[in-house]
Every structure is written in C-alpha cells, then in structure tokens.
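Protocol step 4 of 5: obtain the predicted structure for the target chain.
Materials: sequence only (see below). No template structures provided, no constraints applied. The aim of this step is simply to have a reference model before the mutagenesis design in step 5. Sequence pasted as it appears in the construct record:
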Amino acid sequence: MGRKNFTRIIEENKAMTIEDFKQKALELDKNDKLAPFRNQFEIGEEIYLDGNSLGRLPKKTIEISTNLIKNQWGKRLIRSWNEHWIELPNKVAAKIAQIVGARPDEIFVGDSTSINFYKLAFAAISLQNNRSKIITDSLNFPTDIYVLQGLIEQHFKNHSLSIIKSNDEISISDEAIEQALDENTALLTLSHVVFKSAYQYNMQKINNLAHKKGALVLWDLSHSAGAVPVNLNESDADMAVGCTYKYLNGGPGAPAFLYVRRDLQEKLLNPIWAWFSHEKPFDFTLDYKAINDVQRFATGTPSVLSLAAIEAGLDIMLEAGMEGLREKSIAQSNFLIEIVINLLEPLGFTIASPLNVNERGSHISIQHQEGYKINRAMIEPIDGSPSIIPDFRPPNNIRLGIAPLYNTFEEIFQTIVRIKKIVETKEFERFGDEKLTVV
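Step 4 output (structure tokens):
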C-alpha cells in the first residue's frame, strides 16, 4: 500500500472523528484471532511499543528459569550438563530454524550478534581471498559497520569498505546494490529490515544479484526474525546473524544466533578457535580440529541461564505462526499510519518508514523536530495517562515497534492520541535537550 492508496483511504475517512478511530480499534481487537496470546506475557499498566528493542517477558520464562535455578543448578548441579544443558543449544537452534526458514543443522545459538557477525564476516572474507571489496549500506546497524572497519584495520588491510548511501534515509534501491556489486566483491552485508526506518530488502533478489557476481551475502536479521517471514533456504541465503531479545522475546542480552548454509559450512572457518567448536571437546587434546558442522562457529561454554530463557518466547511464536503474525502486523501498522496521517501530519510529523507493506518490517518511524522531547513526554506523563514506551533514534525518529503477539489496536490508537495531546499542549517543552544514557 503506497502513499496514493493511503491518501485515498484518508479522503474516504476524512469525516472520521477520534471517537470513530477508537471504535475502529475496538472492533479490530474484538476480531483479532491472536488476541489470546497477549495473556501469555507479563503485561503492566504501560503501553509498550518497544518490542523491536526488547520483547516482553513470557510468563512461562519465569517458570523455566525458576526450575533451572532451583532444581537443575541448585540440586542437580553439574549433573545437569548431561541431563539438560549440553543439548540445549541444539534444541533452541531447531526452533529458531523453523522461524527463519532454515534447517536445524544450519543454526548455531550462542555469543552475541556482534561476535557472530565478526566470525562470519572474517570467515567469508578469508574464503574470498582473491577479492578485496566489501559492501554495505548507510542504513545498516552501526555495530556491523564498526566490525567491518575493524576487520579491515586489523586483518585485511588490502580490502576496502564501500558504503552505499541512501537518498532519503529510508530505503536503498535494488538497482543501487546491483551497481555497487562487481567481480571484485568478496562480501555484501545488509540488514534485512533496517533498524531506523523498517525498510525491508527483497532477500532473494539481493542474493541473486550478489551470486551473479560471485559475492557472498551476510544478512543481519535482528529486526526481522519473528517480525516478518524469513526463508533463508528458499532465498538461497549464504549466511545470517540475528538476536533473540527483540521480537523473539528471549530477554535482555539473550544469546544470538547465526546461520550458515549447509554446503558452506566446511568452507568457512571460525576465526576464534575454542573448545566447543572442537571435534571432540572433552578429549582435551592440545591440537585444534574443527567439528564438521555449524557448531564449528561455537566458542566458549553455552550461557545456560540466558539460553534456557529464550525457549518460551519461541514456543509462543511457533504456536501463533509467522503467517498470522505478519497479517496482524500489517493490519496494525496500516492502522497506525492511517491515524498518523489524519491526526499527526497536520502537527508537523512525517512518516519515515515505507508505506508499501512489502518493503516494511514491523515497526514504524515517525519524525518531528522535537522528536526526542516528545519521546520523553510519552514515557513520563504528567496527567495520569499511562506511560507509553517507544524508543528514539537520532536525529528525530520516534520508533513505534509493533509486536502482534501482545500489542493491541487500542494501544496504537491511544498512542497516537497521546502524541497529539503532547504536541498541542506543548507538554514536551518541560524536557531539555540532554539525552538519557539509553534512548
């Protein structure tokens, strides 16, 4: 749905009042097939639209974590390694594989997203040692770019990093990617869903363009795993990384995951040699020999406490199904955009996300020159309104993350009405320009 279609809808609904939008939200919630899943999460009084940064706590996670600490650790101690823990990474990996369209033996779970990105980027560049060009874009998550810069500075000094610039800070065309690729390209790496604007690349098309030039592709799925349908196998993806604490609701700092296509696993070597990637780690030999599967990208001992906490969120998502989640995400984001155009654009807001649902993830960015102060006013109300938690990304983006498992249409309606009031009453003026440590 593009701007023209939204304009048509706005024209058709221009007589709608705020009360009309409220009733529409209530009706949509009444017919929401996924509504019962909200009851499986800890829900407070706040309106939470930051699931694209940290997902809500599943109630089942409390039970799992309590059992692990009190019984598996507290009573069974080291015996729990053989009874529960040693197979936990593979168990969690198999569930993530279903969500991202991969085989279970193509997913490794552990370490952080940045460490996994480092391992795969290093391995890919080393494999493509006759090529010296690395490509990314200016919309990519900065950490990924930092890792690439560090690799060039520390290990691959004859390589260069090409950063494709966006013309609108929202998207980058497939044609721009195609023009940047050439026979000297070793690696192309992009975020599948861009962290600021939620622009979504056509993964299969980009993979095809890169493969025609002999380049490998490394995707960051941090804002797409659990938010949009991802099919790594069908799109012929080479490699990917992603986090589990956003839409997968794994908890703060939960272990990340990586994907390596099965036929590439023997060719790519983990630059961090460690015992859990060894062929026989418990033989304790002094010579390293990498295991011949995706586990070769393991490093140290699995983080059992945080690893176990991921599983409940994955189970909920698998029960709900990505098809239904995506359908609701589209309906909610379209509803949000419709209200923004009606109520907020006259107040100086602009939409900084694609209007075409096929090019958009599950969060919407709106911009205002006082965006940060408005964001603070949403979180810290003074009139008894519930706290509304979005997040802010410089220079003036308020990100509204939609998590269909627990967000309602009424919450979206209340959020936009609240923003309208904050601007009209100039409530945001009570905040200065100083930024909180975490925004």
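Step 4 remarks: The longest strand covers residues 185-191. The chain has 14 helices and 13 strands.
Proceed to step 5.
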